[in-house]
Structures are given as structure tokens and as C-alpha cells.
Amino acid sequence: MSLNDPNWGRQGGSRGPGGGNQGPPDLDELWRNFNRRLAELFGRRRGGGTEPGQPPSMRNLGGGAGLVIAVVFLAWVASGFYIVVEGQRGVVLTFGKFSEVTASGLRWRFPYPVQSHEIVDLTGRRTVEVGYRTTVKTKVPKEALMLTDDENIIDIQFAVQYILKDPMDYVFNNRRTADTVLQAAETAIREIVGKSKMDFVLYEGREQVADAAQKLMQDILDRYKTGIAISNVTVQNAQPPEQVQAAFDDAVRAKQDLERQKSEGQAYFNDVVPKASGVASRLFEEANGYRARVIANAEGEASRFRQILVEYNKAPQVTRERLYLETVQQMLASTSKILIDARAGGNLLYLPLDKIMQMSGAGTPELPGSPRPAQATEPPAPPDTGARSREALRPRERGERQ
Predict the structure, then answer these.
(1) Which residue has the higher pLDDT, 307 or 374?
(2) Whole-model pTM?
């Protein structure tokens, strides 16, 4: 009914624009106006004439019923249109039996009760919480407490996310989807935890437990043809029961101290062992160098001795004289004493001052005529009797050295 109708909002005798009592519309009057307009409409379509023997009221009633039936039929036919959004699927049922699966877009089916449809969302992620509700603090002990392989009890909470992959299986093989996924998840996680050690589940094996539970849950759901695909399993919390939490924390701290001490020992090992290996390598190389040097010196001395022996065999007297002079020269080169031949009778003395100054650090040289301390007395030099006297003294010196 149009809102511009003059009778809308008027009741009783308030007909003028100044009527003070305005309230709900008069339903009886509205119904009479509606019937009158329908009668006028169908009367114009039929030429405005009336059939003989038929009252005008019956004619108007027949025209209004036909219009109502036509409107109802059109509304019934239009009820078969439905829209499937992208990422969804429509499942069409004919008298309750599966007929087809429709893709996204504007679709039409036979109206109810011939056919019906259900929209299934394939992209939306659904979540099921096992062992808790909403937050991990709101625990469900019946679902969270599980027994491990080493006969320990743990409190574990995890969340399961899933999507739908088969609309037909989802509609016809499931009654309560969330309960189905919850039971499958609890069954799978209890089997995985029951085959694992407590430390593995609580610490290093959380990801492995979640992956194994996801595969087992998918196998269970596929075996029941639920049309559900598990997308992710996340372990929210895993810990011992609250009754033994304090003792377990002490054990964890002790284990952490053990690992810390192992790390410190390993660090000390990494610091000391390379240094010791370096020192050992250096000493080994020094020993090899000393060995090579000694061997080389010995080989050089042996080679020099063999060369001297060859020369000695050629001229023994000259060789002995040369060896004696070289030996005396080596001995006197390291001392600050100056020997003077008193029998020579020469007035001119040659003093090697440059040599004396170089050896001044080792001791002060004694000049001729300087007084000698009592403790520094030396035996007088043997008289120079020539080469024969030196040859006579050489065997004696060699015997003393031996």
C-alpha cells in the first residue's frame, strides 16, 4: 500500500489536515480500498462490461484471486534462484537426494519442495581447539592430559585448522563437523604422544609431533569420507601437570645447568687445546731444526777433518805447524793478555790498541810494567825453542785433553 494514500495514519473522524488524532491505519478500510482497486483494474481490462446474471462482487473476487495466484506462482518460481559466491559451491538436492554441485554465479533450481540447495564454503578456515577453549588458561583436563611412552603425564593444548575439499561428502557424511574433527584430533594426538618420550614432546619434538598428528588426522577423516582437509596443527602449550610443575622446573633448571657447564667446558677445550697444539708444533719444529743443525755441523766437521787428513798425509810437519798456530790464534783471540818476547831485545813494541779497546768490555788489558795482583799470577811463558820444541809439547797437550 502506498504511503501517499490519504487514509494512511488516519482513524475515526480525523479526515482533515487538521485532525488531531493520528494513529495506526484502519485495516478494514485499507482492505476495502485494496479490493476496490483490484475490481476497477480487472473491470477495465474486460471492457468495463458486466456479464448478465453475474453479480459485480463475484466478478471482482475472481479477478483478485487470479492476480494473487499469479503473484504467488511467480514468487514460487523466483525462489529457485540463488547466488553462489566465488570460493563456494552449491549442492542441489532433489526431494532430499543429491542431484548436482554448482559453481559460483547466479543459479536456478526447481523451487521447494521439488529441489533445495545448500551453500558450502570451501575457502574459509575453521578452527577446533583441543585441550582448551578460547585461551590456554581455560583448560579442559579431560582432553589435555595424556600419557607418554615413558609413563609420564603431560598437559598439552593444540589447535586444528581445516577446510572443506568435497562438498558432497561434507553435506551427506557429516552431522556435527566440529565434533568429528575434535574426536579425530584427540585420537591422533594421543596415539602420537603415547609412542613418544616426555622430553621429546615437551622440547625438541613439538614440530614433529604436530606434523605426525596432522597426517594421522587426515588419514582418519579420509577413511570416514568426511570431505575435510586438515591445513594446520599448532601446539599451543605442552607442560607437565600443575601438581608436579615445581619439581619439574627444578629438573629443568638442573638440566640447563648441566648444558651450561658442558658449554663452558667445550669453550675451555676450544681455547686450550689449539694453544697446546701450537706449542707442541713449535717445539717439534725447533727440535727438527736443532737436529738438522747438529747433523749439518757434524757433517761439516767430518768433511773438514777429512780434508785436513788429506793435507796431513801430504805434508805432516807443515800441517801440524799450521794447526798449532791456528789453535793458539783462536785461544789468544779471546783474551786480553799481551805476550812479549823479552829475548828479542827490540826497543820498538807494537800494541794492537784497536783490539784492546774492542775487548775492554770483557776486562782491562795489562800493559808491560803494570803491577799484577797476587791472585792473577801466571806461569812464565815457555822459551821459544823452535818448531821441534812445539812438536814435543803437542803430544803432551793432547794427552792432557784426553
Answers:
(1) 307
(2) 0.45
